[in-house]
Design a protein that fits this description.
The chain has 496 residues and is an all-alpha fold. The protein has 19 helices and 3 strands. The protein has a 3-stranded antiparallel beta sheet.
């Protein structure tokens, strides 16, 4: 028996290496083909993901209460006036009744929660018959996803495009083609790529149009300006000692006369010019509505602030669920206090990020990622599509090691699970959805992982900010990641 057991072990030792070697020989060419930057095989992942997302979210295509259905209402009322609403089901544009106190002529109705330039993509989908409008939106977003994938293939590190496709499938299966967030995400990625290659004017133009489609890229403008001045050596290099910080800050202010402002003024000119054009049509809708919408809206049920309010129930602070501003929200006696804390941490975190960039601890890509993380984690709203803002940037930075695969994977899976399974459960009143068993528990776990990711990125825990080498551009202008990160290496712990 002992000889038979020994013989069996020897047979297993002989067979296993051969079988594993055959598997490696089969998989290695496959992965090499998928990770190439050219060839038909390189686009197989995004084609598969795009078709899968379309199939997975096809049940939303003809719903009258979906986001693309709202886009259709905005586009029709802008071009044809409020009388065009009779072309659609009455329930589809019911959310506009509070805004339409009287009949409006064409070119006066602007989106309530979006910048006015969003009417451009909303209107392009009107070129198809009205009943196929949402299919047109899905097709446009599929093209945006392919564009981002192509950019990552050409300019990102090895494997970035593939990881973007996987992230899109896992974390945005229900939102990628039913929201327009892929458009500002693509423009933000274009801005970062342009900065890496020192095409400053292109970076500012891309950022300007990103702001005109979604407000959040406006937070990147100071970081972009700082990166440009540092490259031109018109911003004083900070000293390591923090004792002389006041003197260093004064030196920064004094150096303002040497800063290059033309690109900044170009960016602001594009934003203000296009916004001003729409303001001539409807000043309240183009300017004031945007501010009022973000200031007055309550805490959304999926935000980190909502998790704190839910936990506060244990201390006797009861909450109720309301429906307004196109989302489900929490109403609690602590809402004002928690929102104020969120604003405080947003400002504090934002200034800390800019300070780190000024000291050279963060490059532009890392600064952009950190700003998005802080703005989401401290905001009153955390909609599922917000993950799309981060997906191209994280892929471009090469954030797909063990830490990111686990933490970002959990955030993505729990977000998709909440949207696809919890929000679709049959209830008598939609406001009962957050009261379902497991809803707040799932959201709380997702938010805990997101807070961990944010803190890890800010303080470089688990080397969360490490970057992978970018492809070399012969004869091109390069930045630190292209010059210094030609070998994959971990950053040193931060010293303050």
């Amino acid at each position: 028996m002992a000889r038979e057991g020994t013989a069996g072990l020897l047979w297993q030792e002989h067979v296993r290496p051969e079988s594993s070697s055959k598997i490696r020989k089969f998989l290695t060419p496959l992965f090499d083909a998928l990770l190439k930057t050219d060839g038909a095989a390189a686009y197989v992942p995004i084609i598969f993901v795009t078709i899968s997302i379309f199939i997975g979210s096809s049940w939303q295509v003809f719903l009258s209460a979906s986001d693309p259905a709202r886009y259709q209402c905005y586009a029709l009322t802008f071009w044809f006036g409020s009388n065009a609403l009779h072309l659609l089901p009455a329930a589809q544009c019911a959310f506009l009744q509070a805004t339409l106190s009287s009949a409006l002529p064409p070119f006066h109705m602007l989106p309530v929660e979006y910048p006015p330039l969003t009417l451009l993509p909303f209107s392009l989908a009107l070129l198809v018959p009205l009943s196929y409008y949402q299919l047109a939106i899905a097709f446009m977003m599929a093209l945006a996803a392919v564009l981002i994938y192509w950019l990552l293939l050409q300019y990102g590190p090895r494997g970035a495009a593939l990881m973007f496709a996987i992230s899109l499938f896992v974390g945005a299966v229900g939102t990628a083609q039913s929201r327009f967030d892929l458009l500002p995400a693509a423009l933000t990625l274009l801005c970062v790529i342009a900065v890496e290659r020192k095409h400053w004017t292109s970076a500012y133009v891309a950022l300007a149009f990103g702001v005109l489609l979604k407000i959040y890229p406006l937070l990147f403008l100071p970081a972009l300006f700082c990166a440009e001045q540092r490259f031109l050596e018109r911003l004083p290099v900070p000293q390591k000692s923090l004792r002389s910080l006041p003197r260093q800050l004064w030196a920064v202010v004094y150096s303002a006369r040497r800063w290059r402002w033309n690109n900044m003024l170009l960016c602001l000119g594009i934003i203000m010019g296009i916004t001003g054009f729409f303001a001539l049509l409807n000043f309240h809708g183009a300017v004031l509505t945007q501010i009022d919408y973000f200031v007055r809206r309550p805490v959304q049920v999926e935000s980190v602030e909502a998790t704190l309010l839910w936990l506060a129930q244990g201390a006797g602070f009861l909450l109720t669920i309301g429906e307004s501003y196109g989302s489900l929200n929490i109403i609690s006696a602590l809402s004002g206090v928690v929102s104020s804390l969120g604003t405080f941490f947003l400002v504090t975190g934002y200034l800390f990020i800019l300070f780190m960039q000024w000291r050279g601890k963060l490059d532009t890509t890392q600064t952009t990622i950190a700003i998005v993380l802080v703005s989401i984690v401290t905001g009153k709203v955390f909609s599922p599509q917000y993950l799309i803002w981060l997906m191209p940037l994280l892929a471009y930075a090469g954030a797909y090691d063990a830490f990111w695969n686990v933490c970002w994977g959990m955030v993505s899976v729990l977000t998709s699970y909440t949207l696809l399974f919890l929000y679709t459960k049959p209830v008598t009143d939609v406001r009962d959805i957050p009261l379902l068993s497991g809803f707040f528990e799932t959201i709380s776990i997702r938010n805990a992982f997101f807070v961990l990711i944010t803190l890890a990125y800010l303080f470089n825990w688990f080397h969360a900010r490490q970057r992978r080498p970018l492809p070399f551009v012969p004869g091109g202008k390069v930045t630190r990641p292209l010059k210094d990160l030609l070998t994959f290496q971990k950053e040193r712990p931060e010293t303050f």
